[in-house]
Structure formats: C-alpha cells, structure tokens
Amino acid sequence: MDNILFLVIAFLVGGAATIPIVVYIQKQKMMQARSTAEQILEAAEKEAESIKREKLVEAKDESLQIVQNAEKDARDKMREVREAERNLQSRELKIENKADLLDRKAQDLERLEQNLGTTRRELEESKSHYDKVLDAQNRKLEEIAGMSQEAAKQLLMDNMLEVARIEGSVRAKQIREEAILSATKEAKKIVIAAIQRSAADHTAESTVSVVELPNDQMKGRIIGREGRNIRTFEHLTGVELIVDDTPEAVVLSGFDPVRREIARVALTHLIEDGRIHPTRIEEMIEKATAEVEELMQAAAEEALNELQIAPPHPQIVKLIGRLKYRTSYGQNILKHSVEVGWLSGLMAAELGLDGLLARRAGFLHDIGKAIDRNTDGTHALIGGEVARKYNEPGEVVNAIESHHEEVEMTSPFSALVQAADAISGSRRGARGDTLESYIKRLRNLETIANGYDGVTKTYAIQAGRELRVMVESNHVDDIRASELSSQIAGRIESEMTYPGQIKVVVIRESRNVAFAR
After folding, report:
1. How do 466-471 and 503-508 pair as beta strands?
2. Nearest partner of 390 among 288, 457, 318, 466, judged by Cα
3. How far is CA 516 from each of CA 510, 511, 512, 513, rounded to the nearest angstrom?
4. Three-state secondary structure call for residue 375
5. Which neighbouring-strand residues pair with 249?
6. Quick one: pLDDT at residue 429?
7. What is the distance between the alpha carbons of residues 167 and 170, in angstroms, rounded to a whole number?
8. What is the mean pLDDT of each run of 10 residues along the chain (517 residues)?
9. Angle between the 394-402 and 412-426 helix axes, to the nearest 10 degrees?
10. Across the strands, what pairs with 208?
C-alpha cells in the first residue's frame, strides 16, 4: 500500500515538472510559425508588387499600341476623306463643264428654232403661191380636155394601178433576189469560216459488235454445259450472243449500244481470263459495267474540256457520256454534238454574240438522245425538259427544244444551233442513209411539185438537194414562176424532214419553131 502511494506521488511530481517544459516548447513553435508566416507574407507582398509593376508596364504598352493604332486609323481616314474631296471637286468641275456645254447647245437650239420658223413661213408662202398657180392650171386643163378633175384622176389611177402592180411585182422580186443574194453571201462566208475551223470524225451505225476469239474451241466454253454460260451472259447483259460458223469470232447483237459495249468488254475479259462459268460471268459483267461508266465519264469530261465550257449538272454529264455509244444515221452523236458546239460558237463569234453560250447550246442540243429510247416524246423536247430541270440557261433550253422547230425560237442562239446541226448532218460522208428512205424522200419532193397547176415535169437531183420544176410558159408567167418556187419551198419545209437545205428551181421557157422551105 505504501508503495502504491509512493508511485502516485512520484507521478504527480514528475507531471508537474513536465508542464513548463511543454509550455515552453509550444511557445517556441508559435514564435517560429509566426516568423515563417511573416516571411511568407513579406514574400507575397514582394511578388504582388512585382506582378503589379509588370501589369502596369503591360497596360502602358497596350494603351500605347491602342493610341498608335487609333492615330494610324485617323490618318487613313483623313487620307480617304482628302481623296473623296478631290474626287468630288473633280466631279463638280466635270458637271460645271457639262452644264456650260448644255447651255451652249440650248442657245444653238434656240437659234435653230428661229431659223426653222423663218424657213417654215417662207415655205408656207411658197406653197400658197404654188397652190394658186396649180388651181389655175387645172382649170385650164379641164377646159381643154373637156373632163373634170375627178374623172381625170380616176382614169389616171386605173392606168397607174396596173402599171404599179407589174412594177411592184418586178421590184419585189428584185428586192427579194438582192436580199437573198446578200444574205446568202454573208451566210456562206460565216458558215464556210466556221466549217473550215471545225472538223469531226464519223462512224458507221451498227447494232452488232464482233468479238474475236483465240480459237474455235473457245466457242464451246462460251456456250457452256447445256448452254448455261450463254444463257447467263444474255440474261445479265440483255444482249444476244450469236455463236455461228464464223471462224474465231462471235457476234453480240442489241439495239442498246451501252449494254452492247458492256457485253463486249465483259466477254473480252472472260476470254482473256479463261475461266468461264456463271459466277465468273457475273463478276466480269459488274467489272465491265464499272469500266464502261468510267469511259463514258471520261468521254464527257474530255468533250467539255475540248469545248472549254463549264461542266453542267453531274446527271447531265452522265447523259453526255452515254452519247459516246449512240449513233444517228451512222454519225456518232457525241462527236456530232462537239462539232455542232464548235460550229455554233464560231458562227456566234462572227455575229458578235456570246460564243461560249452558243457552244454550250450546240453541245447539249441532242442530250435527249441519251434517254429517249425509254421515254415518250421527241429527243428535242425530252432534252429541253432535262436542261430545264437542271437549271441550264433559258437560251440553251430553247435551242435544244427548237432545233427541229417543234418549239418557236426565242433567241438567235436557237437559229445558230439549228444551222450548225444541219451543217454537221448534211456534210458529205457525215451520215449514212438507207436506200429506201433516200428514194422515198426524192419521190415526196417530186410529188409535192407535181401538185401545182402548170407544172409539166419535176426532177429531184443532187441527192435530193435540188428540185427542178418545169412549167408551161403559156400558163405560168415570170411573176407566177417566182411565186411558185416560194410556195413549193414552203410546202417542203412544212411537210418534210430533211438535213440541210433543198433548192427549188422553177424553169419557164418558150420555144418558137419555123421551117425554111
């Protein structure tokens, strides 16, 4: 018990002695913390002062830059104001000069009016005098002739009407001939200049393509077991594959030239590859379709670059490419369109019109032929609708629709495109024509002319470019012959379709026979 009490007393005494030491240590820590805080505060104040000075310097620099920019802007504005003042002064001087000129002209007009008034009075006085003299002369003539003035006028008018009618017809014929001669000379000059600067190749129209084979054994592989290869090929391409006795060749027949070209390319690849079966045929046809589309796109872009015109809508470019494989009367339509574009542009330049717009209208005039096989309507109207749909200029749309006179022409570009189309189509060797349609056209020409009174014989010559009409001289006079040629030409224009132009010549001759015995 005594030991325990001793330990308690010792603990209390030791704890009492430790308290001052702890208090001292705590005071030292507080003093050290206060010193550290003061140092941190002093460092923060120094840093803040440094930042403050830097910001003041930056602010001064920015304000100085703003002032300099403002001064520069002010100088520029002042320079502009001075320039505007000089321009205004110059304009004021010009206006003053024009005002002076107008004043002088007004004075000249006043003097001219005064002179005209004087001249008018003198003319009125002279007219009054001449009227009096004329009345006196008329009274003397009536007394001498025993005929009133009205009766003399009527007789004179009757005589003059017949003379005037004959002279008028002769004069009208002369004026018409002179106008035609002058217009023909100028038109020939323009057309010849355009033709001489343009040329295009032409191809023969065909509905078949021949594919050469390395050997005749390849025919059996193309046909396949029980004809499965050839059936697959024809089903996928829509083209008839003809395998006959022709050595080392097969024939592709179809009216769609694009499908026929795809079939030709696919068959060529199959022959080169050597693996011919339905799956491979399908793969090659897909590959050939992509190749032909690329070829058509490249052909369209090449034609646009050649004509130096801006590309139209992508859908129209696609249609242009299809023209690469279209022909009309043996003439490749894409080449024909390029030629018509050049001819239209050249003739427009000769006439002082927009050659670029004329080239565009001429190039797109047959765009309807790329789609008219599957659409009702003529290619001109279909092409016009396509051009209108894709926002082509109004002059281009009208030129497309009116180049076969199905729509009225509303601009000179339409007439140029029609003329260029006729030139390209009627050039020697440009187009082929069947014998049957050729003979039918000649017969129609002669039938039209034979339907008129006084016509004895008709001859269609120069491949239908000229129609010679023989008439009876005692039934048709010279004036009637001139009218007859115009009437026949008008009927040919309204009732027939033909490339180029047809010359109508009416021949009237008299033969007097006598015998010397």
Report:
1. parallel
2. 318
3. 20, 16, 13, 10
4. coil
5. 212
6. 44
7. 5
8. 61 60 78 84 84 84 85 87 87 86 85 85 82 75 64 68 69 71 62 48 56 84 85 83 82 79 88 87 89 86 86 87 76 84 87 88 86 70 88 89 86 87 64 56 83 84 76 83 87 78 82 69
9. 40
10. 253
Domain boundaries, the chain: 34-110, 208-298, 319-426, 435-508
What's the fold here for domain 435-508?
GMP Synthetase; Chain A, domain 3 (3.30.300)
Helix (H, G, I), strand (E, B) or coil at 23: helix
Alpha carbons 399 and 418: distance in angstroms, whole number? 8
Map residue 374 onto helix, strand or coil: coil
Asked if 335 and 320 count as a contact pair (C-beta separation under 8 A), the reply is no
The CATH homologous superfamily to which domain 319-426 belongs is Hypothetical protein af1432 (1.10.3210.10)
Both tokens of 434, joined, read 């069947």
pLDDT at 254: 72
How far, in Å, CA of 162 to CA of 317, rounded? Answer: 64
Residue 202 has a pLDDT of: 42
- List the structure tokens of 348: 């427009």
Task: Give the model's pLDDT for residue 231.
Answer: 85
Say how far apart CA 424 and CA 427 lie, in whole Å: 6
d(CA 368, CA 322): 11
Are 298 and 277 in contact by the 8 Å Cβ rule? The answer is no
